Amino acid sequence: MAELHHKCHEHPLAFNEDTSSPSDTTYDCAGCTENVSGSSYSCGECRFYLHKICAEAPSEIHHPAHRPHPLLLLLPAWGHEKSEVHCSFCSDQVKGFIYGCSSCEFYLDLNCALLPHYTSAGEFIEFIHADHEHPFISINPIASGLCNGCIGPINTDDHAPYLCFECRTRSSYHKRCLEAPSTISHPCHRTHQLLLVFKHSNEDFPVCNLCQTNIVYGSYYHCVPCKFYIHLGCAWPPPPIIQDEHHHDHPFTLLLRSNNPFFCDACGDRGNHLSYICSTCNIQVHRDCISLPRHIRLTLHPHPISHCFFVRTDRHDSRDWDCKICYKKVNIDYGSYYCSRPGCDFVVHVECSVKNVGNKRFYCVVEVENPDEFEEPDLLSDESTSSIIRVLKKINIGDDVIAAEIKHASHEHNLIFSDEIKDNKYCNGCVLPILTSFYYCSHCDFFLHKICAEMRRVCRLWFKRKPCSLLTDGIFLCYFCGNVGSGFCYILCDIRRLCLRCALLSHSFTYEADEPHFIFFSRNNKEKCSACAKDFVSFDKIYRCKDCAFALHLRCVTLPRTAWHKCDQHTLTLAYQDADDYSLRHYCDICEEERDPQQWFYHCETCDKAMHIKCVLRKDPFIKAGIQATTTLTIALAVQKRCRARATAAGSAGFTSTRNVRRPPPRFITLLTPTTLFFFSQLGNIRKVKFIAAFAPTSAGKSVETLHAAHPHPLVSINPTGDYDCFGCIQPMKIDDPSYSCLECGDVFHKKCLEAPSRISHPCHRTHQLLLVIDPLEAFGEGFPNCNLCQASIMYGFLYRCLPCNFYVHFRCPCPPPPIIEDKSHHDHPFTLLLRPDKPFDCDSCGNQGTHVSYICSTCNIQVHKDCISLPRHIRVNHHPHPISHYFFACIDPQDSRSWDCRICYKKVNIEYGSYYCSRQGCDFAIHVKCSLKDVLYDVVEVENPDQLDEFDLLSDEYTTAISVIREIKVGNDVIAAEITHISHEHNLILSDEIKDNKYCNGCVLPILSSFYYCSLCDFFLHKACAEMRKMCKLWFHAKPVSLTNGIFRCNCCRHVGSGFFYEYNFGRLCLRCASLPQGFTYQADKPHTIFYVFNYKGKCSACGGDFPRFDEKYRCKDCAFALHMRCVSLPRTAWHKCDQHILSLTYQNRDDYPLRYYCDICEEERDPQQWFYHCETCDKAMHIKCVLGKYPFIRAGTKYTYDGHPHPLTFVRKIYYYPECVHCHEPCQDLALECVEHECRYTVHWCCIKLYVSDSDNDNDNDNDFDTNSEIWA
Who's near 901: CB < 8 A, 6+ residues apart? Predict the structure, then answer.
């Protein structure tokens, strides 16, 4: 045995591996003064003990609480020169070893001295936190405490928590709380990151958005702009999957949803953000409810009760399902505890039975493994527990046999039965007046009510799990009513007794007062006692009515209904209200003091006397005369009072319970399997149908027919070969589907639809079963119901319904969706089914609301539609150059004030839900999921790699440009092409800024009002922007590249016939004016409008006032009702007309209120002041747009045209000053015409006349794709 010589003891100390004693004797360590356990050193001679760690404590240490000097191990405290030494760190008196610095008078007890952890070099293990002024030191905790970060417990077995030795508050933290990141992204607030507040300012106490409690202490995360706060402890992620096979057969998956409350299927209570789901059972529960017991026993009910998530009842069941503890209604659509015995309707809330710690203790709730097992008290026989030892004589009274003479355990003499009521006699058992049948002793003054004599010696009370024994003699204090009494009582424990009056009370019963009240036992009520009108004390035992405010103290419930008093010779009756309104009658006839008429009293009907209850019963009314209290009983009463006072002071200090979940018992589950024999319910008539399975002709070559309730004619087995829809499920029939058809009607049915069960149990309507309805038209007439699942109308086919609840579902909708969907090409994790009836949700993938079917990914904490599981990760759209990626939310800087608008519909994008975003830095392009995938105009395609360029993007500028640079000049820092060649013209073009009047661009046919290129040899002009248009490009609404072309054409967007440049694609042509319009831009009218392209809009055009034809292209403002036809968007901002020598400007509103000015200065007809017009500011002239532009404003004069009806080329001209005659119609050519370029030929023709031979009509709705015979493609 190893020995140790320690300086604090004169004898050597022997080493002990395990300090244990055969007796109950314990020893204290001389170093830390705690009980010795485990390895230790001891001196057997002196009874001196030291823990091994205390004995091996170093003689000198460096401590963070006293950094200037080392601390030396001094003598024990009892040998110190001071009478009392206090630890300078914890302030407790030191009783064991002391570490100290004598010069500074700094002392530490052994526990505080050995707190820090040291490295192998003897240095402290420190942690420097940016938000704390002192270093934290790693410690070995010697006692449990609270972390100043998460406010969670720091246990003695925690791995190296940290403590600040220099702060007065002695702040201690878990290591992970100190290492918490300064910013986090939380799934319940995905818009912004959350910032860590390490120290609470204590100025305000915000509410945690997750657990809904105030943040009073500790660290927390917050988002200042959104006022979002969460505890540090709430920020830790809960486990994604919890499996507790002992309480539930399947695993539970995490569902974390902010601001989305739910009702727990296990307990029926409301939850906030954190829940777990079981997709197999289709339940959503609190985290605590995962481990609810499957079966429990409680003292209120003789049988074990089982947890069920819902109760399926018959449609005609009209029972009120009331909780047998609180007597509030139980919602049978959610979880509760039920008795599974046939005919038993016992039910209790989960909250009342298991979650409420006080009720769990009071009703002795325990978990049981086998609900069929019995407890020992259930097996006790009546003979072994009866108080009547022997029946000596029996008599017959009517059909009943009654014991006339008995031997009772409480009395030495025999007792004789009697019905003769004796005045002023009291029962020796309950100490109440003898007013009913009783037993008496003929030798002495001993009486027992018949019911008291039959009380069992051993029984189990409704609030006590273990059997209680009957005590038949003594004086005691009743634990329930608080009355001191004599007589019989039941022993609850060593010091608690229960009088017979309280023992006879059940948990609930009907109390006859002024009217019957169904009352039940309760422990909390804020009302007043209906008998004595006194307030209820907290945790007072009371009975209250389940239907009204009637409530009684327990001592008032047990008040005798009759009593005697010496002031009256008659029996006094307990009265519940004073019907006499005469105020002078409200006095007690015993004490002659005033009586409260609202309080109960005793009344003599013969003498009409009223008396206080306290005056009649007096003090200690339940101690029978002749009983003497011994010293022992007096001491017992005092002990009981002290214990009762302590219990009252303790309040609701409870304990933590384990919670469990179980599946419903078998009687609440209906197992439905397909069969070939069915009972079909059709309009109340039930008939048995025999189904003969046949899929091909018999061996004899005959077809097999069958009769079915779904159809009046025989059905023949067929092999479907055409495109048919089943008349049952209204779904298409495949070639290999086993099917039946009616040869008379042509109706076809899937075999599986004919085999459908007549009744089903559906998770979205768990209360009742659903019945099959064959013909909706016959069942509902003209009013077709909507399916409660898909919300579509049920007009054809089979359906299931619950008539009392008006619940209807399509025949195809009850088919359960797959519980798990895994699509790794579109999402990395599997999705789990969540089926919630009448519970809408917002899809995290697309932002739209969903109904009953959703799927969740607990890893990513998202809830999506089934269709959104396979959304493309990356897509390309025409009107954006980069691929865009799908994100479930966008995390932005709180200072970012951008408005995220969808670039298709220009409505706001909720960045807290899924959308498509461009991931390029600085690009804020975003679109809704529904806009990107449902609008075919934008040619959305899925791409695998977002960094992969499109084939057209790889084409060089040299391949797509329409110009070649001849000469360049430098203007400031810009290099500009001064001379070019263009693919549309044979000569070189020169850059110019000198605006020329009445000149039009050969590309867009708009006036030349900005920089342009011109040909010095001929009349050819091009805007600089038109010259730089690519000969091959991609338009925002077309996926494939389009080619630049020249000729006469009709634009498919603005519907104008024009000349010049246009882009040609597979289904139309587009002028340069429309091609230069983006999908969305700012249009400057009377004020700026952000307009975007739309296909359907029901307003009116803000320019011409016309209606929008259906499916017509148009632009509308995202903020107001401003909208324009496509042809109005491309109206020239400036124009010329022969009636005015100045430039005319497009004007958007008429500011002149004088009505005589509302006329056109060209046609001199009235103008609509709400429509746009052209205006000359110099001459103050206003003109119709149609009068200024004419019929063909975008065909440039001088454009050549080849017509098959004439041998020479023709040129477009506008006859302004003289009007030659048209060779076709012989009318003057006043507008656009064509004339022959040959001088000898005087051929002149209207454009509208020659156009009749080329197209069917001049209507804007014509398709003129075949109109142009003079186009030239340059690509």
Answer: 907, 908, 909, 926, 1118
Residues 6+ apart with CB under 8 A from 466: 377, 460
User: How far is CA 700 from each of CA 355, 691, 714, 739, rounded to the nearest angstrom?
Assistant: 70, 20, 19, 21
Higher pLDDT, 905 or 673: 905
Residue 399's φ and ψ, nearest 5 degrees, are: -90, 0
Given a contact cutoff of 8 angstroms between Cβ atoms, the answer to whether 886 and 874 are in contact is yes
Question: What is the rounded average pLDDT of the residues 1130-1151?
Answer: 87
d(CA 231, CA 9): 52
Please name the amino acid found at residue 733.
Answer: M
CB 1145 within 8 A of CB 1174: yes
**Pair 217, 148: CB distance under 8 Å:** yes
Length of the chain: 1275
Contact between residue 718 and residue 741 where contact means Cβ atoms under 8 Å apart: yes
Contact between 413 and 401 under an 8 Å Cβ cutoff? The reply is: no
**Rounded Cα gap, residues 1223 and 649, in angstroms:** 117
Tokens 């293990």 belong to: 125
Buried b (16+ CB within 10 A) or exposed e, 78-95: eeeeeeebebbbeeeebb
Rounded-to-integer distance, Cα 369 and Cα 752, Å: 41
Question: Cβ distance 1196 to 1214 under 8 Å?
Answer: no
Q: How far is CA 181 from the centre of its chain?
A: 27
Give the pLDDT of residue 955: 61
Query: What pLDDT score does 1090 carry?
Result: 92
Per-residue pLDDT for 1265 more than 50?
no
Q: How far is CA 412 from CA 39, 409, 925, 1117, in A?
A: 62, 8, 100, 104
Predicted TM-score (pTM) of the model is 0.65
DSSP state of 124: B
CB 913 within 8 A of CB 846: yes
Q: DSSP 3-state assignment of 1157? A: helix
- Compute the radius of gyration of the chain from its Cα atoms: 48
Please state the rounded mean pLDDT for residues 332-343.
86
pLDDT in tens, 563-579: 888 888 888 999 988 77
Integer Cα distance of 288 and 356 in angstroms: 13
Quickly list DSSP for 912-960: TS-EEE--STT---EE-HHHHHH-GGG--EE-S-TTPPPTGGGS-HHHH
1061-1067 long-range contacts, CB within 8 A, separation 24+:
1061/984, 1061/1002, 1061/1003, 1061/1004, 1061/1026, 1061/1029, 1063/1033, 1063/1035, 1064/1271, 1064/1273, 1065/1035, 1065/1038, 1065/1040, 1066/1040
3-state secondary structure of 52: helix
Separation between Cα atoms, residue 998 and residue 1009, nearest integer Å: 10
Q: Compute the C-alpha angle 748/751/756, nearest 5°.
A: 110
Edge-to-edge order in the sheet of strand 1173-1176: 1134-1137, 1140-1147, 1173-1176, 1181-1183
Q: Output 111 or 1266, whichever has higher pLDDT.
A: 111
Return the top range by mean pLDDT from 267-276, 443-452, 777-786, 892-901.
443-452
Q: Please, are residues 217 and 201 in contact by the beta-carbon 8 Å criterion?
A: no
Q: Which two tokens stand for residue 469?
A: 């024994």
CA–CA distance from 1091 to each of 86, 931, 1085, 1115, 1119 (Å)? 80, 17, 11, 6, 9
Q: H-type helices in 401-505, by residue range?
A: 450-453, 500-503
Average pLDDT over residues 158-183: 80
Structure tokens at 103: 């010069």
Helix (H, G, I), strand (E, B) or coil at 681: strand
pLDDT in tens, 532-543: 888 888 777 889
Distances, alpha carbon 888 to alpha carbons 681, 843, 911, in Å: 47, 9, 8
